[in-house]
Design brief:
Largest sheet: 8 strands, parallel, barrel
Structural class: alpha/beta
Number of strands: 35
Number of helices: 21
Radius of gyration: 28 Å
Shape: globular
CATH class of the largest domain: Alpha Beta
CATH superfamily of the largest domain: Glycosidases
């Protein structure tokens, strides 16, 4: 506990707020807030101090007011000054109320208070969000929160061992110095890289009169190609069944692949000659991927002259996945479909659809209408009878997008059909028994409605908590009531009802349903410990010794339900682990039941780095979902303005490219604090056995939704990292991944990355500029230094344009183009631009 005398005092400051007052028209609130980090690692503890300042923009002196806000850290109540009280409500939701001593604020006055919270804060995204004011019985009013700059080492250093620097223009410049601009003809025009690509003389010119002929079972692929060519040809090419020769046309057919594919129907052969185009796939999926490679080869110069080439290709992994969390913040159907289009173009074939969590249930289940009527809506509430509390800055209004929203049954069926047409399997996630608060609150609302109608038995049929359960716990995300009571029969009736409704939607969509992901992660310690229902169950079942056995009990029963319907059970890594005297070990009972773990928690130095290989060696079919390389919600770097979390690592575009699935210990050179990982750190760690290698199904990128509030933000976080993921999931293993010695491995890897970075900058990002109205991918900041009056600048993805100004103005697409070192004077500003004129943030360079 921190003594009061050591806290920063409450400060009443008369502030010159005229410039801020000019912004008052932007919102209805009579005040706004500023937030700044004062210091991390306060007094040697894992805690940070920040300052929240109230600024009165008008006449504001109410007596009965409450401020609500979301905050990702745990505020230490003993550190809060006496003039206010800050109360943790649940999750990341807080309430701030004034004491009698809270002073009145005259116009343009400000009031600052400092408090401490757990861990650290080094980014703008760590600030309080979604703040709103409630005065008496009046409607809530949103309150802007402005983040003050991070300028000192105390603000950007998490702890004494944090040696990772904040990126600067100079550091970026030196990091990029080894990258050269390569000639376009030296780059693969297709990503992911095909196994065999042999350029040939000549080209075939596409026209509106180029017919498409297709063999049996390929009408859908022919129609897809015709639709893709229509915008380029200004009319839809003719498609018809039949045809074996490619003379003057495009022919699609199924034929055995020439290269070793382990029986994959995703292999294909693409032959382009001046006389025509033939795509032969081992199956319909192979033909589809051949179509995607053909699309990649069509030049963007308007000539429609497709260069002659022979390609033989097949995927490295059968499972190539992308996960999207729409529970924390909702993403509309059109956004999902655009992501599916991009996944398909880059030959990803599994869409892990995270539909439910504590903060939202996003799928209509008609027989349980409260799941979406209550569980999909967030907004100001004191009882949660008709909505959930705000989370992740979603604010007080339940009709606001992102915090609220769901897919109707017809929406979901359309998404399934859209994905299936692109050879993507949708794997739905219904997260249980933890991460289930939205479902719990929805079923409480259902029970209340039916009890009020006198239907007591029906009211309890799907109730997910025991009203007499007095268990005390707190989840990783701060929830105290997010675990269903697995000892109640209602829990299994609920699971069965949801499974059957899901299966019915897939059947109506005529889309495959092979797997349901059940979550299973992060069940907090203390759950069920004071549940009468669980005490009774444990007392009556000799196989249950304590509440520690209940997650396994629940999973076995869920597997029974899914097995009976011919479905595979998947979950996060926790579902495959159990505790013994040596710690967490594979639970072989679930390997025998074909439970599929998605392994995520491999943070360097945390002790879980071996879990994926232990599970694969024990017989589990594993999907590698490693946070350190494949979590796309994590920030690209340590820049305070760069969005994203950073608990596991910083994940730049290169991180998925550097991922080595069959020897994950080679996937990073430094840990999350910037320390080099010693070459011998994992010398004695678990390696994959021959059998274990066969149990690595593939890899998956994860995009969690806590910080994503718009379509543009989703695309910013996903791209271009998704393209790096696709390269590693499909392309043959790079030779450098097989080199054991770090120095020669790096020497071989860096030129490979240079080529791929050029491919992104020169080919793939310009392609995304044209894709479906453009994609809001992340544009990297420039590197720049001024030495002896000479500006030197570069970019991490060569091919993007660098522009600069010397008069203090913001660079625009019309500003001078940087092509080589140039003499400069004055205040130099530098930005990177894409082909559409979108720019990165501006970098100011000092001599």
């Amino acid at each position: 506990m921190t003594p009061r005398s050591l806290l920063l005092p409450l400060l009443l400051v008369l502030a010159g707020c005229a410039s801020q007052a000019n912004q008052s028209a932007e919102h209805e609130s009579p005040l706004f807030l500023t937030w700044e980090v004062v210091e991390n690692h306060v007094e040697g503890r894992s805690a940070f101090r920040s300052r929240l300042t109230f600024v009165n923009e008008g006449t504001w002196n109410p007596k009965d007011w409450t401020l609500y806000f979301n905050f990702e850290r745990t505020i230490l109540p003993e550190s809060v000054p006496d003039v206010v009280q800050i109360t943790h409500i649940n999750g990341d939701f807080y309430r701030l109320t004034p004491a009698e001593t809270f002073p009145a604020l005259a116009p343009v006055d400000s009031l600052s208070l400092a408090f401490e919270a757990s861990d650290w804060a080094i980014k703008e995204i760590d600030a309080p969000s979604g703040a709103y004011l409630v005065v008496g019985a009046a409607p809530p009013v949103p309150v802007p929160v402005r983040v003050r700059p991070f300028r000192s080492a105390k603000q950007s250093t998490r702890m004494p061992g944090d040696v990772l620097p904040v990126p600067t223009a100079a550091l970026r410049y030196h990091d990029n110095e080894a990258l050269r601009m390569l000639p376009a003809e030296a780059l693969s025009p297709i990503t992911p890289t095909p196994r065999i690509r042999t350029p040939l003389p000549g080209a075939f010119t596409l026209t509106a009169q180029t017919p498409i002929r297709f063999g049996p079972r390929l009408e859908a692929e022919a129609a897809f190609l015709a639709d893709a060519l229509t915008p380029l040809l200004d009319e839809r090419p003719e498609i018809a069944a039949g045809g074996t020769g490619a003379s003057g046309r495009i022919v699609l057919r199924i034929a055995p692949a020439k290269i070793e594919t382990d029986g994959s129907d995703e292999a294909y052969r693409l032959d382009i000659t001046p006389n025509g185009i033939e795509i032969a796939g081992a199956g319909t999926a192979g033909v589809f991927y051949g179509v995607q490679s053909l699309r990649a080869l069509i030049p963007d110069d308007g000539s429609l002259r497709v260069p002659s080439v022979h390609i033989e290709d097949a995927p490295r992994f059968a499972y190539r996945g992308m996960h999207l969390d729409v529970a924390r913040n909702f993403r509309a159907k059109a956004e999902v479909e655009k992501l599916l289009d991009l996944m398909a173009f880059y030959k990803l074939n599994a869409f892990h659809f995270h539909l439910t969590d504590d903060e939202g249930w996003r799928l209509e289940i008609p027989d349980l209408p409260e799941l979406t009527a209550v569980g999909s809506r967030r907004g100001h509430t004191l009882d949660e009878h008709d909505r959930l509390v705000p989370s992740f800055g979603s604010g007080p209004f339940p009709d606001r997008p992102n915090g609220s929203g769901h897919y109707s049954r017809s929406d979901f069926i359309e998404i399934l059909r859209y994905a299936h047409a692109r050879h993507i399997e949708v794997i739905p996630e219904i997260n249980l028994p933890g991460h289930a608060r939205a479902a719990i609150k929805a079923m409480e609302a259902r029970a209340a409605r039916l009890h009020a109608a006198g239907k007591d038995e029906e009211a309890e049929a799907f109730r997910l908590l025991d009203p007499d359960d007095a268990s005390v716990y707190r989840s990783v995300q701060g929830w105290s009531d997010n675990v269903i009571d697995v000892c109640r029969p209602a829990a299994y009736r609920f699971v069965e009802a949801v499974i059957d409704d899901l299966a019915a939607m897939y059947a109506e969509a005529e889309a495959p349903l092979s797997t349901i992901h059940t979550g299973g992660d992060e069940v907090p310690h203390g759950a069920w410990t004071r549940s009468p229902a669980c005490a009774a169950l444990i007392g009556s079942d000799a196989a249950l010794a304590s509440t520690n056995d209940l997650p396994g009990y629940f999973l076995h029963r869920v597997v029974d339900l899914l097995d009976a319907r011919g479905l595979t059970t998947a979950g996060w890594e926790e579902v495959a682990l159990t505790e013994d005297a040596h710690g967490k070990v594979p639970n072989r009972a679930f390997a025998a039941r074909h439970v599929r773990p998605y392994v995520w928690n491999n943070v360097w130095g945390w002790g879980g780095e071996e879990v994926a290989y232990r599970l694969a060696n024990a017989g589990f079919s594993v999907v590698l979902s490693n946070a350190t390389n494949l979590y796309f919600d994590l920030a690209n770097d340590k820049d305070p303005a760069e969005p994203g979390f950073y608990w596991a690592a910083f994940v730049p575009t290169r991180a998925p490219f550097d991922f080595t699935p069959m020897d994950i210990y080679r996937s990073a050179d430094t840990d999350r604090l910037g320390h080099a990982i010693p070459p011998d750190r994992y010398a004695h760690s678990t390696r994959l056995t021959a059998e274990g290698r066969e149990h690595i199904l593939g890899i998956q990128g994860q995009l969690w939704g806590e910080t994503i509030h718009s379509p543009a933000q989703m695309e910013y976080m996903a791209f271009p990292r998704l393209i790096s993921l696709a390269e590693r999931a499909w392309a043959a293993p790079p030779e450098w991944a097989l080199i054991a010695d770090p120095a020669p491995r790096t020497a071989a890897r860096d030129p490979d990355w240079e080529s791929f970075a050029n491919r992104l900058g020169q080919i793939e990002l310009p392609r995304l500029d044209r894709f479906d109205g453009g994609t809001a991918y992340r544009i990297p900041l420039p590197g720049a230094v001024i030495e002896d009056g000479i500006l030197h600048a570069n970019v991490s993805l060569p091919g993007l344009s660098i522009r600069f100004t010397t008069d203090g103005a913001e660079p625009t697409p019309q500003s001078p183009l940087y092509t080589r070192s140039v003499s400069v004077q004055g205040k130099v500003r530098v930005r990177v631009f894409d082909t559409r004129g979108r720019g990165s943030r501006t970098v100011v360079v000092n001599d």
